[in-house]
Amino acid sequence: MTSPFAALQRQLGPGKVLLSPAERGNYRFDGIQFGVRPLAVVLPETVEDVVAAVRAAKAAGIPVVGRGAASGLSGGAVPLQPSLVVSFTRMTGLTIHPERREAVAQAGVVTLSISDAARPHGLVYPPDPASFRTSTIGGNLGENAGGPLCFKYGVTGDYVLGVEMVDTDGEVHRLGRDAYDLTGLLIGSEGTLGLMTEATVRLVPPAKYSRTLQASFTSVEACAAAVSAAVSAGAVPAKMEFMDGACIGAVEDYLGLGLPREAAALMLVDTDGDDPAQVEAEMQLVEAAFLAAGGQVRRAETETEAAALWQARRSVSPALGRIRPLRMNEDIAVPRSRLPQVVAEIRALGEEYGLPLVQFGHIGDGNLHPNILYDPRSDDPAQVHELAHRIALVALQHGGVLSGEHGIGSMKREFMADAVDPVTAEAYWAVKDALDPDGRLNPDKLLPPRPTHLEDSHVHS
Amino acid sequence: MLHAIDACVHCGFCLPACPTYALLGDEMDSPRGRIVLMKDVLEGELSLHDAAPHLDRCLGCQGCVTACPSGVAYGELITSFRGWSEPQRQRGLLLEARRAAILRVLPSPAVFQAAATLGQVAKPLAPVMPKLLRPALDLLPNRVPRRNRLRAFYPAQGLKRGRIALLAGCAQQVLAPNFNEATIRVLTLNGYEVAVPPEQGCCGAAALHTGDRPLALGQVRRNLAAFEPQEYDAIISNAAGCGAGLKEYPAVLHGLPDQPQAEALAAKVQDIAEFLGGLLDRGELRPALPATRPLRIAYHDACHLAHAQGIRREPRELLRWISGVEVLEVPRGELCCGSAGTYNIEQPELADQLGELKATSILSTQPDLIVSGNIGCHTQITTHVGRQGGAARVMHTIEVLDLAYRGEL
Ligand SMILES: Cc1cc2nc3c(=O)[nH]c(=O)nc-3n(C[C@H](O)[C@H](O)[C@H](O)COP(=O)(O)OP(=O)(O)OC[C@H]3O[C@@H](n4cnc5c(N)ncnc54)[C@H](O)[C@@H]3O)c2cc1C
Ligand code: SF4
Ligand code: SF4
């Protein structure tokens, strides 16, 4: 059988269109989920290559899935039906405009390299997903990625000034925020509305000073109360990271950093700014609030000490890998006041299912990552899946949302029906149908099932 | 093998550490891609023939191992996969002959000396040589240094503190005899007597990593017989690749009767920088004279030192310890220079691109001197720095120390 993309291969030249099974094999999964081997993979080097690829897919009536570094944790870049994958890893053009405090980055630019290139000009790009050495700016836009810094500095979407995108017909658009905020619409759209080929992002000068504190609490309630008290007192820390007792234990088992095993919650806090006195004053606010809530507090006096305190947080991933080979990294966000109940209910669920479960996250935003640890050879995947669903329901019951930063993708799509009311679902589908009428852009992702009456009209139109 | 594969959670953290991915931007040429290819082949989903091109491009640099948060033992994985798959490979006659020749010429100093001398004669003929042989010729130095046969024993100077065995290395003895000479001088000066067991041979790493397990096993056992670990304080290597190779012996002989001997030997193996760094840490290293002028030294992490053996701190500290020396960090230092054993000969185009990238990164630090701890890197960097018109010399860490002891740095 000749591939519908053999002609595209001839058109784009050697090495850009992968057709053999070996060459396509890796493009069937992301950081968490396996899907199906795509029909073909395109590695575009220019926007013209992307246009050609999208047109070829349209002519063949085949879905198109955009892909960055595939570090995603929600199955977003994974084809679920025979598709054309457009992988942006070779589009790595990057220009820094220090005078405008902007960077223009092609989709495949690795997130961290924007700051690396900007730093000599006294600027950085703040959004900092833990994957920023690997993930691409295109994927960050696709997921509206966040990170520890987002409590103070915001998420990807807060830094995007404009986007160049290729629509489902292969037309190129340059979107700013002049009329309708179509840029905003594309951010977090997980490749379901168009392929982004380039982004213009805002840069800021990095803070000159920072302070670090680690605190442990004997209950999650005390921890949540302490955080709320610190924020009410006016502190806006750069980072506020939370680890539950199980997570502390896992890291201790792995590295033996001397963390308090008996604690129910561990907090890591950074304050930063350009005035050392102010940075210190802000940290004192935090410290006072934490002490008042019964926290055990440790301050870092030097940069080395700060790095040592943060090592606990950085070691979470490898520590978990040693308990069970695989983990389902959940990503919910709830109002901060509900955190204690949510953490307790989720912990109880883990016990009910008999699966190891740890929780950590960006507490400033109420963004929690319950991680279910499992071994596909001995644990029942259906159980893991069911537990993930119950965790999602806990978030929704407490007025939270299904995703804080990792996106819905294919993993959490089925929970969307629980989360989105029918009227909103209809509005989402109206947008989708307007921009992608034949539904070929990353199908089976993000949106709740199409409302049935729309299903009819869609089929007839 | 499948167990190591399962440890990979496909997070992609290894991608930016992989030199071939940096050049090609294709996931199949990334660690994560290669792991999946191996899995697909082992599970019968994919033919070896289809997977081979991407697996062959792997340098074995283990940059991915350093980067992986889940501790995937990629190095062991690719080595055992190559050992498993090599007997099933079918190559063209010329390729096969070249491979066999490399694996047998490199390990023997005498044969390599002859080949290198012959190669020098052939060098001017390179343009008319078969394309497959040209990269091998390019690799040879323009002048082969005179070969000094090493004695079997060198006494300690002054008070004797211990006894060392030296792994002399193969091609290195021919290309850079001074590495061993400097090593012996520095060690004896520090009160160690140095034995160079004459029965020793190639460490076996080249054969092992290219999948010739039978050849490798023979070489490994020869060394097990040659070195008596209990007689020495340490068995020292000054070639990162060979040192890593010796430390791998227990894994190579895993489950075989001579595994305990391999473990005893591996426990004594240290890289020269690791050993001297230990002396430095304990304040036992004999003082060296300051550099005669301020020196900016770009230190290049050899993959088999940094990634395979985890030795990064000691060589830098040894260099910094010499007063007047400033150690410079090379941008994107974790990326392999493209030398990687026989890679230069098997994948000349990629090796060249990586060498070029590495030379550019190194020269961007504007060094007076370039230092690394491995003969392969040494040759590759010398070639590419030269091509870019860089004037800085490339030296081994031990050569720098040796000069410092003599007041000639
Ligand atoms: C260990 C680990 C830690 C992580 N930590 C964080 C974290 O702290 N915060 C966070 O937010 N995420 C985190 N992530 C998740 C992941 O890294 C982010 O979602 C990241 O933004 C994905 O980028 P990517 O380039 O890998 O995109 P991919 O995974 O390739 O794609 C993500 C989505 O974007 C779409 N897409 C990709 N490129 C384009 C494009 N050019 N145009 C249109 N759509 C596109 C894809 O179709 C897919 O739906 C983590 C992941 C791992 C493995
Ligand atoms: S970093 Fe490790 S776990 Fe992640 S994809 Fe690479 S090998 Fe697999
Ligand atoms: S060993 Fe080096 S070349 Fe091979 S996959 Fe790992 S990083 Fe890439």
Automatic annotation (TrEMBL), chain A:
Instruction: List the Pfam families hit by this protein, alphabetically.
Output: FAD-oxidase_C, FAD_binding_4
Q: Which SUPFAM superfamilies match?
A: FAD-binding/transporter-associated domain-like, FAD-linked oxidases, C-terminal domain
> GO: which molecular function terms?
FAD binding; oxidoreductase activity
What does this protein need as cofactor?
FAD
Q: Which UniProt keywords apply?
A: FAD, Flavoprotein, Oxidoreductase
Which PANTHER family would you find in this protein's record? GLYCOLATE OXIDASE SUBUNIT GLCD (PTHR42934:SF2)
Protein name per Swiss-Prot or TrEMBL: FAD-binding protein
Query: What organism is this sequence from?
Result: Deinococcus radiophilus
From TrEMBL, chain B:
* Keyword DNA-binding attached: no
* Record's catalysed reaction(s): (R)-lactate + A = pyruvate + AH2; glycolate + A = glyoxylate + AH2
Q: How is the cofactor bound?
A: Binds 2 [4Fe-4S] clusters.
Cite the entry's keywords alphabetically. Answer: 4Fe-4S, Electron transport, Iron, Iron-sulfur, Metal-binding, Repeat, Transport
Q: What's an example of a GO molecular-function annotation for this chain?
A: metal ion binding
PROSITE patterns on file: 4FE4S_FER_1, 4FE4S_FER_2
* This enzyme's EC code(s): 1.1.99.14
Q: Which residues form the 4Fe-4S ferredoxin-type domain?
A: 1-28, 49-78
The UniProt record lists the keyword Electron transport = yes
Q: Which Gene3D superfamilies match?
A: Alpha-helical ferredoxin
Give the required cofactors.
[4Fe-4S] cluster
What is the role of the protein in this entry? Answer: Component of a complex that catalyzes the oxidation of glycolate to glyoxylate.
What is this protein identified as?
Answer: Glycolate oxidase iron-sulfur subunit
